[in-house]
Amino acid sequence: MADERIVGIDLGTTNSLVAFMQGEHPVVIPGEDGVNLVPSVVAMTGADARSFVVGNSARKALVESPERVVYSVKRLMGRGIEDVHEELKLFPFRMAEDIGPGEVLRIKLGEQQFTPSEISAHILRQLKRNAERYFGAPVAKAVVTVPAYFNDAQRQATKDAGRMAGLEVLRLVNEPTAAALAYGLDRKKEGIVAVYDLGGGTFDISILKLQDGIFEVIATNGDTHLGGDDIDNLLIAIALDDIQGELGLDLRANAEAVQAIRKAVIEAKIALSTETTSRISVELPDGKKYQRELPREAFEQIIKPVIDRTKGPCRQALKDAQVTPEQIDEVVMVGGSTRIPAVRQLTDEVFHLAARGKKPHIELNPDEVVALGAAVQANILGGGSAATENMLLLDVTPLSLGIEALGGVVAKIIQRNSTIPASATEHFTTGVDGQTNVAIHVVQGEREMAKDCRSLARFDLKGIPPMSAGLPRIEVKFLIDANGILHVSAREQRSGQEAEIEVKPTYGLTDEQVESMILESFDYAEQDFAERQLIEARNEAETILTAVEKAPGNAAWQQLSEEERTQINMLADELRVLRETGERTAIQASTEALDKATRRFAELMMDAAVSSAIGGKTMDAAGENLGEAPTVPHPFAPAEIK
Amino acid sequence: MQIAEQQSVKTACWSCGADVSGPLCAACGKVQPATEQDYFAVFSLPRRLSLDTKVLEREFYRLSRRLHPDLYARTSELEQQWSTEQTSLVNDAYRALKDPIARTEYLLKLEGMAIGEETTGKKQQPPADLLEEVFELNMQLEEMRMGGDDPQLRSDLENAKKQFEAQLAQADADLAALWAKWDGALAEGDLTAQMASKEEMLALLDRRRYVRNLVRDVNAALDGQSGDAPTP
Lengths: 642, 232
What we know:
Chain A: InterPro entries: ATPase_NBD, Heat_shock_70_CS, HscA_NBD, HSP70_C_sf, HSP70_peptide-bd_sf, Hsp_70_fam, ISC_FeS_clus_asmbl_HscA. The complex is a heterodimer of chains A (642) and B (232). By secondary structure, chain A is α+β, with helices and mostly antiparallel strands. Chain A has 17 helices and 27 strands. Chain A folds into four domains: 6-187 and 365-389, Nucleotidyltransferase, domain 5; 228-306 and 620-641, ATPase, substrate binding domain, subdomain 4 (Actin, Chain A, domain 4, Alpha-Beta Complex); 401-506, Substrate Binding Domain Of DNAk, Chain A, domain 1 (Sandwich); 531-597, Substrate Binding Domain Of Dnak, Chain:A, Domain 2 (Up-down Bundle). An eight-stranded antiparallel sheet of chain A has the order 20-19-22-23-26-25-24-21, with no helix packed on it. In chain A, strands 1, 2, 3, 4, 10 and 11 form a six-stranded mixed sheet that branches. The relative contact order of chain A is 0.13. Chain B has seven helices and two strands; from the N terminus they run ββααααααα. Chain B has helices spanning 39-42, 53-67, 77-98, 100-110, 131-145, 151-188, 191-223, and strands spanning 11-12, 19-20. Chain B folds into two domains: 11-98, DnaJ domain (Helix Hairpins, Orthogonal Bundle), CATH 1.10.287; 128-223. The chains are: A alpha+beta (642), B mainly alpha (232). Chain A binds chain B through residues 1, 149, 170-171, 211-212, 214, 221, 312, 316, 377, 380-383, 392-394, 399, 405, 407, 409-412, 418-424, 445-448, 452, 479-482, and chain B through 61, 64-65, 68-70, 73-74, 84-85, 87-89, 91-92, 94-95, 119, 121, 228-232.
């Protein structure tokens, strides 16, 4: 078992990471470019569904061909078309037109359509490859993290993505819990810990009790629609309003322009974590420059409504855990958005930290801590080591599970914050003589009416022996497993033979569908690993060569010096030969050399693309439509437009 | 704590064939399929209602360390499934027993009593001795709902809240006394006394549930919300 490596993966809205336990410490495995964070961006590079790039290279394609690129796909995982109206106003997802309510979403990329799980599978596969490159050995098992507040369908979709990527997902771990594990490794602490996790798209709060190596989650709460993205969208709305007000120029439908503004506001936002003032600066389509001063004070006023929305879940979690803020011994900060000073101040206020001479924990990189914790859990599942000896995680289900009873009322069968695995048994019968089917509607949520909860599944109990109405006694067992995923089994007890009842869920992907979506390149999982690496190296060579062949058609090519161009052509010729006949290492070295030589060209091209995009090209298809985003009242001085 | 009424049935271990009576085989250590057990039996406890929750927690942790699915990630699919079922049984049992009210309700159900369903949405009748207070409270709540949020009304409601919270605390104290009665009758095997204490507990739980709902309604009115649980 020692050589079987189980990795920990943080599949994030904005960035994803893979980590593993090296000796006594979890470490993040960097990508090929040496960077730990892999942007959760997927781009289709060829016409067929097989050539994809992920991460920074996909992000580059975002400017050139946004219709072939997807980011923030985590927002769509396990959701139906009826759930994502708000998302579609703010994010440039291009949905297939013919998706019915309750069906799995399909996103258009070029001419093709993909489910969110398939897109996520590409990210997972990239992380798997990064790990395999690092180990020089195959990786087939992983622990993957999800927001604590993810519902059953979102968890199932994440697990499906793993399978499509050729990874057996041994466990889904809640992100805040994973963070607690990462922190708990170094400090053999006891006490009550709150984990405040504000990421790009989701917010979670978990309260844990640490005792003798047991990490017992006692309450969790959150909001799966709250994160740094919301802050960005507010700032973008302000910039768009300014530009429209001053220049009468409505850029809302111009995806490239909005993309450029998004980039600029994010930079300004990040700068404000360390500076007291920053500046949003964007080149506009008409050649003018939009600039505005953004003092931290004004920024904090703007984002207050967003970050204040984290208070309610915190208070509810404290209440559910039956603890007061004073009983919280430590607060752990997770997620990039916790770098914002106002967010730190808010946690101080909610948990009365400074007043008690305490500070929130920010020692571990908030972008990496979840992946590190996933690696710790992977180590525990793999049999543990000295570092994780005696560590055991007891997590909870974030939402109550219920069934729709007469009149649309919800009968709760498993309460939120129940330790998982958890189960409940219910009995059903028939209402009509000879009835052989009974439909059960399972919902997740805290509201009293089924229509106000998240519909999880409609199960059809089939094959009930025909009997008089009310006579069958069907026992249905609901079991939430350690991943937070629901399993339902049923049997009829009256007919004497305890007939097994077929349980058919009517949501998500079927096993067969998942099977058919397993990424094709995994056909050679059985093949020699070296051969697979060679194929990958050739594919990478192919990608860069294609780009170089197209280069002379680009204006940026003319900006290169004669020497630079000669150098690129020479290296490309060399790679072309090696690609057909060379060894893997030779191909990789040559690819790397060509990549290095073309780096300046790529930069020039991107700059040009940004300005030309803003130069009035109209966006095809859905575009990044900010929809009915309200005009944001803000405390700014007027912008400068030069 | 003494072990009594343990309901486990002896079967043969699926792996080594030795006799097993718990979740794990004593001979080879393999996890066994979960058997139907009541929650007290899961923790090898008699059906007594006074119990030390610290001891219960320690036992919960001890069982979790042996049965949790995290420890079975490398075993066969069947063993993983059994570990999940065994752990869910331990979790379900711990959840029911650690909470005084849930524990009492569970015992009464186990003893064949019908517990008032909370989920039917039916309005309960107020306890006779509270009729007057409840009538007055409902008037005040109605006034509050009509928008009459004046300081006098608010302070009346605050007072009512205090009064009903005191009722709730009294009910909890009374319940603890009934536990002692049940535990005593159980130890002596006095079936008549057992029946009597069960009836008393049932009545007390009904009353308590009624008062708790009143407190919840008053709190909701004071917070300016409807009585519904918070939206996730």
